[in-house]
Structure prediction request, 436 residues.
Amino acid sequence: MFSLAEENYLKAIYHLEQDTKGGVSTNSIADKMDTKPSSVTDMVQKLADKGVLSYKKYKGTTLTTKGRKTAAGVIRKHRLWEVFLVDKLKFHWDEVHEIAEQLEHIKSEELVNRLDKYLGHPDFDPHGDPIPDKNGNVKKTEKKLLSELTKKQKGVCVGVKETSSEFLQYLDKRNITIGTKLTVLGKEFFDGSMIIQVGRDQFFISKKTAENLYIQTT
Amino acid sequence: MFSLAEENYLKAIYHLEQDTKGGVSTNSIADKMDTKPSSVTDMVQKLADKGVLSYKKYKGTTLTTKGRKTAAGVIRKHRLWEVFLVDKLKFHWDEVHEIAEQLEHIKSEELVNRLDKYLGHPDFDPHGDPIPDKNGNVKKTEKKLLSELTKKQKGVCVGVKETSSEFLQYLDKRNITIGTKLTVLGKEFFDGSMIIQVGRDQFFISKKTAENLYIQTT
DNA sequence: CTTCATTTTTAGACAAGGCTAAAAATTAAA
DNA sequence: TTTAATTTTTAGCCTTGTCTAAAAATGAAG
Prediction:
């Protein structure tokens, strides 16, 4: 039905739509896909013909319901495979993204359903991202970025925004992972840095880090 | 390193080499790959340049050691994934081939090693085919085709030659699977058909079926 | 309301893989 | 051994997805 390249475009546009009001710009897609705007134009025209997105010259694109569902299907597979890699094959959470990028394109409805069942119908992947259900719906939780919290607030780490190995390993070194409880001890006004408490340890957290950690406040 | 198409060619040539003396012909590859001879010529020339096979115009091709190892690696992945699908996800042995055809191209050494370990280092796939080890070596067993047995011989079914769903489902209907013990009760001379005993049941087996069942005689 | 920087699209080209039609080599038959 | 049939290769074209360079549209600033 959809080629590997097409699925990757849909996925990228799906993600971009989530933090953009209105249509997604050609340049932003090119940026995310690490490709050239001209290539994006070609592809979105093709995808518009296929009915998975609507496209107006110079005005950006928006996924149709069909497109959104297709993208969610790919993301569902990606996240389920990540759970498999971490829970069953004992990979570390910073090693699974690349492999899941490949596995997400395996075509078999039955496979996804059985994998889902085998893993116990997980709701979140190892990075705390929600796994869309068969119909492409995600149960969204009200989570905040650590950077949005203020002094003395407590919360549980429920996800990461950035998923690079460097960042995940950095968190590991500080024993921060999904489920970690933490408290904001202080927040520096001029540079956005924070001091947080994790268990008995206290850490300095840069603004950049704080903007990439999702917290569920309690 | 190798594209999907290249890997598929290597795999096909690897299989063809096993039942061919001398080089593998262009036409036989085209046949197996369901493609045109002209396309095969192009590809084998490219693969020869890459050093995975030797090719002499009009004389057929032979895998180099590197090529054989690469092909075995792909086959190793295919068969390990088949074990996963059957043992863990409870797929039926006639449903896994197509999915494994996709999974065999996932690139990650670490993934294969962990999968192998997770599955308990299996030696055979669900169809009884041997799984090459990390170095591409297969332990070959002395197995015969059912059609080679004679009256009163007993044996255990250890594999199938043909792997189409139709054939596997046909075997299932007769309760024949890997590990099934059977005895040849009679063999018809003029059409090669046989009567075999499986447990308490007796079955008529056509020549075609007998030529696609591997038996280890006891 | 022009002008200029930015964004986006178009046009033309390229690499991978595949196909068709025609030419060349090989093998088999008479 | 000369011809005929078969196999294999070559030549040229197509599609997918990409790129660069140039043109066109948009929008921000004066």
Remarks:
- Chain A has a mean pLDDT of 94.
- The first strand of chain A starts at residue 53 and ends at 56.
